[in-house]
C-alpha cells in the first residue's frame, strides 16, 4: 500500500478511469504497482521459457516466468498488451506476456527488439512512445525493473494499439 500511496501522491493513477484507460503511462504505473505488491524484485536461479534458459525473475516469493495472471489482468483492466522481461546479458527476454505471436501463442522467450526502448531501459530510463511490437504498432511504455541494489534486472512493458 505504501507504493500505491506514493503513486497517488505523485498523481499517477493505478486504476483505469475513462480519462486514463488508454494512457500507457498510467497503465505502466498499474503494472508496476501490481508487481510491487508481490514484493521486491530479484533474480534467483534459472527458468526455462519457450525452451530457453533464462534468469528466474521473482517479486517477493512469486516467480514470474510462465505465469500470466498479472499481464492478463492488465489486458482486462486497460485493454492493453503487457509484458515482463528479464535481463539476460545485454538482452531482455519475455517471460510473462499477453502479446501474441503471428501463430497466436504467447510471445514468451522472444527478445525486446533493439530499438529506442531497449536503449533507454538498458541505461535505466523509461521509454514511452510509438513502437512496433511483434509486427503491430502500439503507443507503448517501458520501465526498468530494479533489484534492491538498483541494478536493472528486467523491464515492464505496456502498449495500447494505435
Task: Describe the model.
This protein is α+β, with helices and mostly antiparallel strands and 162 residues long. The protein has helices at 2-9, 24-38, 69-78, 116-122; strands spanning 41-49, 52-59, 62-63, 81-88, 91-97, 127-133, 136-146, 152-161. A five-stranded antiparallel sheet has the order 5-4-8-7-6. A three-stranded antiparallel sheet has the order 1-2-3. It is globular, with a radius of gyration of 14 Å. The termini are far apart. Residues 1-21 have low confidence and may be disordered.
Q: State mean pLDDT (0 to 100 scale).
A: 88
Helical stretch tally: 4
The assigned structural class equals alpha+beta
Strand order of the largest sheet: 5-4-8-7-6
The strand count comes to: 8
- The percent of residues in helical segments reads 10-25%
Query: Mind summarizing the main beta sheet?
Result: 5 strands, antiparallel
- How big a fraction of the residues is strand? 35-45%
Broad shape: globular
Sequence of secondary-structure elements: HHEEEHEEHEEE
Could you list the spans in which at least 5 consecutive residues all have pLDDT below 50?
Answer: 1-21
The Cα radius of gyration reads 14 Å
Q: Span from first to last CA?
A: 33 Å
Comma- or semicolon-separated keywords:
4 helices; single chain; 162 residues; alpha+beta; globular; five-stranded antiparallel sheet; 25% helix; disordered N terminus
